[in-house]
Design a protein that fits this description.
alpha+beta
Length: 182
């Protein structure tokens, strides 16, 4: 009986070498997984930001139709969509913010080199068409993640937004988010 107790006590723990091997394996696997996980998070933030912008456009258009008046989507800071955006309605010269959206998350920015960033704002008339004065307003805004992936929102003359991948040939017409919004 004594021999059995001595044998089980010897088999209970790990040796220092076994422990060092496990720690080394965990470190190697972590070094491989962390960059991939970071890119995954950045790409998810990009997709969420793009979806939120499309939702804002759809909401602005729906409010213009519901209120039978012009509703505008503008950046919260002049010509800086990175700081967030808001939906505004103007009645008798008084602007009212209907909804404000937060700034873009860390690692996601507006790609200024791609598209026209909707020329700083997008207005919907009472019929739901995107307008700039008497003309239809078409355009595009592109978002870019630090991972290098991009996503664009193209607004047609009818005011309907669609999401495209400017890095995919033919998806945004000319592999770029063009100013015509096609």
């Amino acid at each position: 009986m004594r021999r059995r107790t001595h044998l089980s006590a010897r088999l209970r723990g790990f040796t220092l070498i076994e422990l060092m091997v496990v720690v080394t394996l965990v470190a190697v696997l972590s070094a491989i997984a962390v960059p991939s996980f970071r890119d995954l998070l950045l790409n998810q933030r990009l997709a969420a930001s793009t979806s939120e912008f499309v939702a804002a456009l759809s909401m602005a258009r729906a409010e213009a139709l519901k209120r039978s008046q012009t509703v505008t989507l503008t950046p919260r800071t002049i010509n800086d969509w990175n700081s967030g955006w808001e939906i505004k309605s103007t009645v008798e010269g008084v602007a009212t913010t209907l909804r404000a959206f937060d700034a873009l998350p860390g690692g996601v920015t507006v790609d200024a080199g791609l598209g026209n960033a909707l020329e700083g704002k997008l207005s919907y008339d009472a019929n739901g068409f995107s307008r700039k004065g008497d003309a239809y307003q078409m355009g595009c805004i592109a978002f870019k993640a630090e991972s290098g992936r991009r996503s664009a929102v193209v607004v047609s003359a009818s005011g309907r937004p669609r999401v495209c991948d400017p890095d995919k040939k033919g998806d945004c017409a000319t592999s770029q988010c063009n100013a015509a919004g096609r």
